Sequence to fold (183 residues):
Amino acid sequence: MQVKSLAIDGVFEIVPARFGDVRGFFSETWKRSALAEHGLDFDFVQDNHSLSVPVGALRGIHYQTPPMAQDKLVRCTRGRVFDVAVDLRSSSPTYGQWVALILDAATGNQILVPKGFGHAFQTLEPDCEVQYKVTAPYAPDCDRSIRFDDPSIGVDWPLAVDSELLSAKDRNALLLSEQNTGF
Fold:
């Protein structure tokens, strides 16, 4: 399992080894001891699975406030997505900055998005499935969303965003400056 730090401290790309033959492949997508060797030890409590049918569908920028903040280990199991992590830690030198990674089912790479970060993705192909593990259960009272087009963050989405492909929650999200993220 390869672990690579991305441009913002705390966000990692994880590339599990794949063992293949004529039948396909086998891969350990999460192994606590392998990640702990890199100082990444998490107690995942919930798995989530989403299907986004149209190309260009956007989900996010989502996070949960403390005490229900979540670390997320995210992978695309069908298709390809442009995956984004936004630093929401107010004392961080990279506060409000973002980092992106293309998650591709063909390679099996993953992104580790720690507590204190917002998370979003945009589909690059039809029928994308994204699965992720989280360290805290979904808590509606702590659930928040930041506008995908917040100019203070400036995510450079690879495809034009169609408001019809946003949830009502994401269409009505507040700017980062209008929120107290709790981090």
About this structure: The chain has a mean pLDDT of 96. The chain has two helices and 13 strands. Residues 32-36 form the longest helix (5 residues).
